[in-house]
Amino acid sequence: MASSLRLGSSALRTSFISKPIVQSAAYNGLRCYSAKTKSLKETFADKLPAEIEKVKKLKKEHGSKVIGEVTLDQVYGGARGIKSLVWEGSVLDPMDGIRFRGKTIEECQELLPKAPGGEEPLPEGLFWLLLTGEVPSEAQVRGLSAEWAARSDVPKFVEELIDRCPSTLHPMAQFSLAVTALEHESAFAKAYAKGINKKEYWQYTFEDSMDLIAKLPTIAARIYRNVYKDGKVAPVQKDKDYGFNLANQLGFGENKDFVELMRLYLTIHSDHEGGNVSAHATHLVGSALSSPMLSLAAGLNGLAGPLHGLANQEVLNWLQEMKKVVGNDISDISIKDYLWSTLNAGRVVPGYGHAVLRKTDPRYVSQRQFALRHLPDDPMFKLVSQVFKIAPPVLIEHGKTKNPWPNVDAHSGVLLQYYGLTEANYYTVLFGVSRALGVLPQLIIDRALGMPIERPKSFSTEAYAKLVGAQL
């Protein structure tokens, strides 16, 4: 096996791995946080043989069983609801909302380790949970924080690439461009070109994913500081956690509440099943054995769309338009009138409704609770609260919305602008940093389980008509 591949601590050996893996210079000598603490890579490798056998047994004993049906409406409706993807990290229940490895957001807030004196879970802990299914110890999370900090240096040519981008190029386009350029550093791509055993794929995917995640805050911050500020980016503080470093590099490190918001934001925006565009695109491109860099870049390009990650920006713009019209009058009748004017103009109420959920998004609830603790008197938060009160009955009366309740996008922009991050065009980049924490664990799992290239069957409209016995 190539000696350039990196390992989170000591040389790894399992029943199906016979050679040690050597860490790179960037991580050389760091080992894990404690010699007695199992690293993330060791934890995943220990669990892997049992997981492989579980999948083999499931396929062997139940592979021929029918698990659903497909209607023509689903085919022409964007494959909505078709059961066809494997996604281990999270499952979205219409009533309970998202569960990360079976745990609700509220349970994650309670169980996952926090920074000393902090109130919100560290995203490092969620990444560990998504990859292994286990809640990590504080020592394991501290070790992961240290590992990401050690891997965080961005290649000079990538920095120069970002610096050469015109400020008019959308931040998400710059973000995708930089992530794509990191393909130059891909351990997976280099190893595959030399020839490696399929059982080794996941290890190189793991290393690339860890390197990629570690570099995202610096890349995201460089884009923000170039486009909106003075172009200066603070260095990563090696003894700090991921959320703090992102907040600090953006220029908000001195505000403890904003740091806590970043920890919460990164955690709750990370994963939302595998069928959403950014998750599915990452998985799909990865199934072709493209590197994590190219796979995540594909997911980011999907996230940039107004029907996906750009939605939180649209919500804030809509709220600001409303504020200009209603002013300080946020009475029930004033908000109701504005909502009806939006609907009667043929527009949707942004931030309300969801493809799967049929109740208030728990991610919205967690952000609302944060706001109630930290900014209860903010005028924009009060406006959001009034919309939360008035919009559902209006949408029910309107009758064209299956889910009249708010989703995560209905709240996040208001929190960011309160702390001074007012550049709504940039918000999706933060979403992208978070989404990497959810899609890359699944990419590692895909390669570990030997998942094949994704290749569904397509038909023409004429062929579908023939299948259902229709005359066109």
Describe the fold and architecture.
The structure is a single chain. The chain has a 3-stranded antiparallel sheet with strand order 1-2-3. The protein has helices at 40-62, 72-76, 105-111, 123-132, 138-150, 156-164, 171-181, 187-194, 201-228, 242-250, 256-268, 277-287, 292-303, 311-326, 332-344, 362-374, 379-398, 409-418, 427-448, 461-467; strands spanning 90-93, 97-100, 103-104. The chain is 55% helix and 2% strand. The protein is globular, with a radius of gyration of 23 Å. β1 and β2 form a beta hairpin. Mean pLDDT is 90; it is low at 1-23 and 25-29. It has 472 residues and is mainly alpha-helical. It has a domain at 309-419: Cytochrome p450-Terp, domain 2 (Orthogonal Bundle).
Reconstruct the topology from this structure.
Elements: H1 40-62, H2 72-76, E1 90-93, E2 97-100, E3 103-104, H3 105-111, H4 123-132, H5 138-150, H6 156-164, H7 171-181, H8 187-194, H9 201-228, H10 242-250, H11 256-268, H12 277-287, H13 292-303, H14 311-326, H15 332-344, H16 362-374, H17 379-398, H18 409-418, H19 427-448, H20 461-467
Antiparallel strand pairs: 1-2, 2-3
